[in-house]
Amino acid sequence: MKHSKVIILSLALALSFAPSARTQTSHQREERLIRPGESIGQIHLGTNGGSDLKKLRQPDLIDNYTSHSVRVWISKKDGRTDTLFIKTVSNDALGVQPVDGVSVELIRVTSPWYRTKGGLSTGSTFAQIHREFPDARPVDGDGKLFGDSKRGIVFEFARSPSTDSPCSAVMVHPRGEQRVANAEEVENLLREGHRP
């Protein structure tokens, strides 16, 4: 009897220090979360972009301009090619601190691994997106991009969507602004961009 009490006590102590499955799932969800107007995964919009970019491997392509740059990371897995596109602007050009840093202005992903709190990702249908973002409106002339500028999110489609059209990319930008990078821009960068 005494031996079984020691085993039960040891097991209880071990379980109290072990991370719960719920905690692990919560952390994993944070790494995958699309937050409109804020972030995608570990990359956040705003003036501390340099520290977030250090978390990533070197980009596959980069184009530097006078005051801004665009970076693309390419991931090939299970027969899919996905991209992560990030546009940054020099803090010096914006007149914000830290002056020697960069501000992330736009994050665009094509991987379904990233999801909104409601579960939306690339592959989600126009109808599903409209339920979670009823204020999303066309933001381009050909109707492939739908965004909610107040919340800071844009969804891209291969063509002007119908109810069951799947989303091909998700973008996050500062709330109240409308910044986008469509598939054509990314494709041009993939063709003409510079390898670091």
Commentary on this structure:
By secondary structure, the protein is of the alpha+beta class. It has one domain (32-192): protein yfey like fold (Sandwich). Helix content is 28%, strand content 30%. It has helices spanning 2-17, 21-32, 49-53, 91-94, 126-132, 183-192; strands at residues 33-35, 39-40, 43-44, 61-64, 68-77, 80-90, 102-109, 115-116, 137-138, 145-148, 153-157, 167-172. A hairpin with a 2-residue loop joins strand 2 and strand 3 (43-44).
List the helices and strands and how they pair.
Elements: H1 2-17, H2 21-32, E1 33-35, E2 39-40, E3 43-44, H3 49-53, E4 61-64, E5 68-77, E6 80-90, H4 91-94, E7 102-109, E8 115-116, H5 126-132, E9 137-138, E10 145-148, E11 153-157, E12 167-172, H6 183-192
Parallel strand pairs: 1-8
Antiparallel strand pairs: 1-2, 2-3, 4-5, 5-6, 6-7, 7-12, 9-10, 10-11, 11-12
Summarize the entry for a quick read.
28% of the residues lie in helices and 30% in strands.
Jot down its keywords.
196 residues, alpha+beta, protein yfey like fold, 6 helices, 12 strands, globular, disordered N terminus
The major beta sheet can be summarized as: 8 strands, antiparallel
What is the β-strand count?
12
Q: What is the 3D form?
A: globular
Order of helices and strands: HHEEEHEEEHEEHEEEEH
Radius of gyration equals 21 Å
Mean pLDDT: 81
Name of the CATH first level: Mainly Beta
In total, the number of domains comes to 1
Number of helical runs?
6
Which strand order do you get reading across the main beta sheet? Answer: 4-5-6-7-12-11-10-9
